[in-house]
């Protein structure tokens, strides 16, 4: 997780592919349920990678 601004508690979750060196998604939440919902919307080809 990363803070949007130093000293603030507004966090985003960054999802990346280490193998591909690619940013996959930036999610405006750190709550598990929110992250799961966003990731379910990813195309199946992306989720399999």
Describe the protein.
With 49 residues, the chain is of the alpha+beta class. It has two helices and three strands; from the N terminus they run βββαα. Helices cover 29% and strands 31% of the residues. The chain has one domain (2-48). A hairpin with a 4-residue loop joins strand 2 and strand 3 (22-27). It has a three-stranded antiparallel beta sheet with strand order 1-2-3, covered by helices on one side.
Fold topology:
Elements: E1 2-3, E2 11-17, E3 22-27, H1 32-40, H2 44-48
Antiparallel strand pairs: 1-2, 2-3
Separation of the first and last Cα atoms: 21 Å
Order of helices and strands: EEEHH
Spatial shape: flat
Structural class: alpha+beta
What is the count of structural domains? 1
Sheet with the most strands: spatial strand order? 1-2-3
Number of strands: 3
Features:
single chain, 49 residues, alpha+beta, 3-stranded antiparallel sheet, 3 strands, 31% strand, flat
